[in-house]
Amino acid sequence: MTSSTAERGSGLRGWPAFVAVLLVPALLVAQTTGDGARPPASVVLRPLVDKVTRAQNKDRVVNEMELGVTALALGEIDVARHAFDSALHLIEITHGGTEQARQARSLWYEEGTKDFKGEPYERAMAYYYRGLIYLRDRDADNARACFNAAVLQDSFAEEQQNRCDFAVMYLMAAYATHLQGDKNARDEYFAEFLRFRPDFPVPDWDNSIIAVVETGKGPRKLADGVGHFQMKLFRGKGFKDVAAQLAVGQQKWRAYPAEDIAFQAMTRGSRPIDRILEGKVQFKKQAENVGTSLTSASSEVMVAAPLLGNSSGMQAAAGGLALIGIASALIASNAKPRADTRYWPNLPDTVHVAFLPKSVRGTAVSAAFLDAEGNELSRQEQTPPEAETLLWFKNS
Q: Could you give the residue ranges of the DSSP H alpha helices within 235-365?
């Protein structure tokens, strides 16, 4: 991506002023109209902006992710762009010389106290949304870079069979590459996508624009096991929308379920963070055992010393063992292996994709959100401009 780290860093400092200029005027209008109309985007976004600007830094990334998706759904593209640039900047500087970075490498802090950077699927989705915004801005070069970065994040999965299988990222990269005019690279990306979704119909690349529809609620994280050191991921709950259909007049297209986000979250096997946490638990147990054993041995030596005729030397050794035992017990008490269960709350369960003819530009396109029996639950409508390259719908 062409955005530099320095540019993104300046964005972090600019949040409060940026928000004041963009959101406060609309918020004042909303407070004075009182006509019962739907509140403007600023009213919906204000609590999320407050979470970003007032919350502890350790939660900043997850708050910006949530804000970015909400802003994108409300059409506040500047807010969404700023939120994801800021979140990705923080994701990209996981290691450094800050106190937070040192804590992240330490055994002495719970996972939940660290700066949130997300699991691989969450980081991949952050790049996915930034790529969508680049597509909307007709910046195919940076869109492609974002989808490639999403694939890289997915490669951090531990289980070999689940590495780099985030299929929708290959499809989006193929589309961005097509817009760049590189047909050979486009076909390579699309062939990779077909490895995972072989029944997807080959689009008419030159005469199509892409439509993306998101349904359901994303995966949840829960702590499990003794000491809550194991992170468990579960499919989202409380939603019925599982499919989508696009239409222009009487012409209809069923959107293809290109990616199951919950599957991406739940099929990672023993993720690296699990190994770290398990290591902390083992370390804690071993330190406790060492502390108990050495303290017990110290007591036994103290009792035996007068009988063995070397009271002063034996007692000195016993004192040393006791100190080591106490130190081990203190170390064990400071090792906190609790899992980090913070998660991105407004991710979708499924990403659906359809290629529509370019003739839909300038025409109202509707997206119907369907339940498992095909019943329509809700509907959204957009009229893409003549030069549009992307349609994006999300069931709120």
A: 261-266, 272-308, 311-334
Task: Report d(CA 171, CA 80) in Å as an integer.
Answer: 22
Q: Is 187 helix (H, G, I), strand (E, B) or coil?
A: helix
Q: What is the biggest distance separating any 2 CA atoms in the chain, rounded to whole angstroms? A: 102
Cα separation values, 127 from 169, 218, 392, Å: 9, 16, 16
Q: Tokens standing for 147?
A: 């989808």
Structure letter (DSSP) for residue 237: -
Alpha carbon of residue 170 to chain centroid: 18
Query: Element (H or E) spanning 366, and its range?
Result: strand 365-370
How many whole angstroms from its chain centre is CA 297?
49
Give 361: exposed, middle or buried? Use CB within 10 Å, 0-12, 13-18, 19+.
middle
Whole-model pTM?
Answer: 0.74
Any residues with CB less than 8 A from the CB of 396 and at least 6 apart, and which?
73
Domain ranges, ordered by start, for the chain: 275-333
pLDDT per position as a tens digit, 299-340: 444 444 444 455 555 555 545 545 555 554 544 444 445 567
Please measure the distance between the N-terminal and C-terminal CA atoms of the chain and give it in whole angstroms. Answer: 29
What's the length of the chain?
396
Asked if 371 and 362 touch (Cβ cutoff 8 Å), the reply is: no
Q: Extract the tokens encoding 365.
A: 């396109």
How many angstroms separate the Cα of 115 from the Cα of each of 5, 342, 380? 18, 11, 36
